[in-house]
Amino acid sequence: MPDSSSILIVDDSRSVRNALASLLRKSHAIEQAENGEQALASYARNRPDIILLDLNMPGMNGLEVLRTIREGFGDDETYILILTADDSSGTKTRGLSLGANDFLSKPFDIAELRARVGVAERQRKLTRQLVDYARRIQNEIDLVASLQSKLLPTATPYLQGIHIESLYEPSGEASGDYYDFFPVQEGRKIRTVVADVSGHGARAAFIMSIVRTVFRITQSRYMPLDETVALLENHLMDAIGDEEDFVTVFTADVDFTDERLDYINAGHCPGILRQPSQEPQLLTGSMPLLGFLKAPVKMRSIPFTKGSGLLLFTDGFYDWKKQDGTLFSLEDFIAAATGCLGRDEHVLKKITTTLEEAGGGMPAYRDDLTALWIFNETTAS
What pTM was estimated for this model as a whole? Predict the structure, then answer.
């Protein structure tokens, strides 16, 4: 019976076990156990689809078997039908709270037993289909995440005196975060971008690919930063303008020849600018987020002298709970990060270590983590 459901019958009465087996053997694969210990051994060995479980047995009773399967083995899929002469509400409540799927009172009607086993079979079939579907979906998400990681930079472009660090840690699903950096205008500038698409999964990854495509076009066919963002906004409005999705972007052209930083912050976290002998400066939003409400593109320009550095990041670095239960805020992150910005290498590593210390342990990040650190180290001021 390769396509039949397997049933484990657990009862301390041989006559009850044999009667149930006689009724069900024609269309099911049957295993029997006369006590709780045998039941768990048979369960671990065969993983039946359905368990008919007596509650009142010597030694380990049915409720203990039920608890062990649900909590000890972590099995929420096996259909467990309780057979008991005790049909009090207290017994049913305890059984259901421990994970029983159904109850049938002894003595039971044969037709009702077969009907309830039929319900159990349909439920198990549906559960298997859902598990298989979820597994295939997860495989697709994993494939998307793998392909997505290949869209991110694999090497840092060499420019004398320029130091770039990157960090990318997805939350476990296909990510909505994106970062990039590449030379433009024959290497006179480095174009950088950090973006965050709302949500996770394949949808966010698809929208992220739109963002990357628009920016990467400008590597081979240069376009000023404001025109690039305007083009991206048009594409996003066409693709998601009627949906609830949105994208936040911080993008900058770092001109090391003219020592200037041109940037656009479209609803993103503030960039943190460190300049020699000055307090860190927050580069806040210059325009609303993208894909939601079309607005004029506003670009700002500031000096980026020798010894200056720029930190870009996504919101996964804050809005997580510390060990004491308090929320680690954006202000907390800025305070922690600014103390790490300097000429030393491994700035991003220092930041993550500082966050671990500030949170009293490894932070329970709830979102993707993405960061860029760009430093003009041509000479020290």
Answer: 0.69
